[in-house]
Write a structure and sequence with these properties.
Helix content: 25-40%
Shape: globular
CATH class: Alpha Beta
Strand content: 25-35%
Order of helices and strands: HHEEEEEEHEE
CATH topology: Aspartate Aminotransferase, domain 1
Number of domains: 1
CATH architecture: Alpha-Beta Complex
Radius of gyration: 14 Å
Strand order of the largest sheet: 1-2-3-4-6-5
Number of helices: 3
Number of strands: 8
Oligomer: single chain
Structural class: alpha+beta
Length: about 130
């Protein structure tokens, strides 16, 4: 189930972006049904045991899907984002969302996690979760 605040986030987007967001949310909820989802730092994010796993945000000309541990997935289609372990995919149309590809990334997101939940306590040092 998608949190009401995330549904409100979707409703605030232009039609094309709203459709992309709703499609992404549907696939994420299907493949991570036990994940907590909420608005975090103004964007929809899904968490497993308090650790951020996947989320998306509106950029100027696209919707950016972000996997916090995505650089470790070894999967094509994701681009490095930032200086930690995150990877992203950007969408400008809903037709670009490949549900099978996204399902594979979500499977990897469950299996491969870096401990972002405790990154502040560890002063910016990430540790791999088992």
């Amino acid at each position: 189930m998608v949190h009401p605040d995330i549904r409100a986030y979707h409703a605030a987007q232009p039609a094309t972006d709203r459709t992309i967001c709703e499609t992404l949310a549907g696939v994420i909820v299907k493949h991570l049904p036990d994940a907590e989802n909420k608005i975090w730092h103004r964007h929809p994010v899904w968490f497993l045991d308090g650790n951020p796993i996947v989320g998306y945000s509106k950029l100027k000309n696209c919707i950016r899907l972000l996997f916090w541990s995505g650089q470790s997935f070894g999967e094509p289609g994701l681009s490095k984002e930032g200086s930690f372990k995150a990877a992203e995919k950007r969408y400008t149309t809903v037709e670009q969302v490949d549900a099978e590809e996204l399902a594979q990334w979500l499977k990897k997101a469950r299996e491969i996690q870096w401990d972002y939940k405790n990154i502040v306590k560890r002063r910016g040092v990430l540790e791999r979760l088992t």
